[in-house]
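Table 4 source record.
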Amino acid sequence: MNARLVLLLVAGFLPAAEKLKDDPVEKEMEPLLGRWRFVAANEAANDAKPAGAIVFTKDKMMIRLPGAKEATAHPFEIKPGADPKQLDVMHPDAMTADARRLGIYSIEKVGKKDQLKICLALCFNQERPKDFSQKRDNEVFVLERDDIWW
């Protein structure tokens, strides 16, 4: 009797596990997870090597900007179905309940390294950038996957 109950419980969770496996956000989250170090602070500075990194976990980004001594935690959401893929970075201490910096991102292989490009609006709830070109009202960051965690 107990074996049947266990089998029924396990069988009940299988469809939920399959659904998670097919979830586009979960699939896209996997390549983002881990530590990325800043390579450039805008497209024109591809040869610059500023210090700093972003560590992605499933529920937050730990951001240590170039020159900063400490990292700050920011909840985030991705929308991989959009073209380009969208990234919303929430500010935990903002006075507005839903303050978001809207952005876009892409991950591609450059040589042997994974490269993450992020373009974020400068201000909260400002219009989302449409491309990765550097403009007055956005920031473009280029990062490479880093195997070392801080």
